Amino acid sequence: MRSLRYIVPVLLFLLVAGFLLLGLDRNPGEIPSPLIGKAAPSWALPRLPSATASGAAVADGSMLAANTLKGKPYLLNVWASWCAPCLQEHPILVDLARRNVITIVGVNYKDKPEDARAWLARHGNPFGATVADRDGRTAIDFGVYGVPETFLVDAQGIVRFKHIGALTDEAMRARLLPAIAALPASSIAAAK
Amino acid sequence: MTSASLLHPSRAAGLVLLLVLCALAAVQPSAAQEARPPGTVERAAGATTATTATTTAADDAALMKTDRFRHLAGELRCLVCQNQSLVDSNAPLAQDLRAEVVRLMSSGRDDQQIKSFLVDRYGEFVLYRPALSLRNALLWVGPFALLVIGAIGWWRLGRRRPSASPSAQDALKHVDELLGQ
Fold first, then answer.
1. Cα–Cα distance between A76 and A149 in angstroms, integer?
2. Torsion angle of alpha carbons A96, A99, A102, A103, nearest 10°?
3. In which element (H, E) is residue A163 found?
4. Sequence-separated (6 or more) residues with CB below 8 Å from residue A42
5. Separation in Å, CA of A157 to nearest CA in chain B
6. What is the DSSP code string of A57-75?
7. Nearest alpha carbon to residue A43 among A162, A146, A157
8. Among B15, B17, B18, B20, which would you mutate to test the A interface (most chain A Cβ atoms within 10 Å of its Cβ)?
């Protein structure tokens, strides 16, 4: 009984130390999105003029809307030419597009169209379609609070996964690719 | 002796227990994210843009000076600089969100609707005072529960103290015996 008196504080100390240790690994900047598992906000944005990867000519000012993308999953990547981490993650997106894993829709956030075009011309264009969110209001609907952010939307239009900040090889291998693989097999086949 | 009794090991242990439990309560993850059904406040894009078109920039600026706006935006967290409210922050996102709050206000939403508009998009973390719910009840009640537990522990240890010092009495008796010899 007497020894218990001295052991209990030690155990409590270890418990607190354990919590603090776990806290070291947590990034307070990463706020879990309330959108996961819910329908993506319906959006309709003008396409960035002449920025399609397929080379298909698109008339300036034409719109792309969320419901036209329904039926196959896509990755929604919010980026800007003024954003340094976007450049950092860019090769990963280019590689993903080259391997034809999933359609990537680029949302050009609060950017000048000519800057965005020049940036894509210089660094490669992984986007199946690029749309411009010049006032950032669609990004607010997605709960974007910093670029880049990447959302995985499934064939039914449900948000399945969100990555905050630049994508890394580690994030791809450990989280995004498994999340894509976890989508229903039929919708992945449709994406290929 | 009365002042020294505070430092008695059993008391000190109780105090340490109390402090540790309070520290534990503080370590709890800061924001319990609450899942809310989407679309409690859906922004009807057409309706809002129509309202925006009729209000002028001057109206918006006037709205930002109202007590209602300052109070509401003061309770909303800037997501970029997390320890500042939407009123305090100069981050571009905070400016956009202020504009969004003004837009919602001028379209006739009440404070609760504006808050849930932001919670639907950014999670409960945007609220400096999240509503009490089943998911975050532990965060609200926990510290008080730990305080009560700690107080009970301290009280019980304190009560046990008189019986915990017979060794000292034995020692005194032994001294008396030695002196008496």
1. 8
2. 80
3. strand A159-164
4. A65, A66, A67
5. 14
6. ---TT-EEEGGGSTTS-EE
7. A157
8. B20
Alpha helices in A80-173 (DSSP H): 84-98, 113-123, 137-141, 169-171
CB atoms under 10 Å from CB of B124, counted, come to 23
Please name which of B9, B4, B19 lies closest in space to residue B161, comparing C-alpha atoms: B9
By the 8 A CB rule, do A40 and A157 touch?
Answer: yes
Q: Cα–Cα distance between B81 and B84 in angstroms, integer?
A: 6
ipTM of the complex: 0.80
Residue of B172, B86, B166, B95 lying closest to B126 (CA atoms): B86
Phi, psi angles (nearest 5°) of residue A25: -85, -10
What digits encode the pLDDT tens for the residues B51-85? 445 557 778 888 888 999 999 999 999 998 888 99
- Retrieve residue A182's tokens: 């976890």
Distance CA A74, CA A106 (A): 10
Give the helix/strand (H/E) hosting A153.
Answer: strand A149-153
pTM of the model: 0.71
B chain contacts of residue A8, beta-carbon cutoff 8 Å: 13, 17
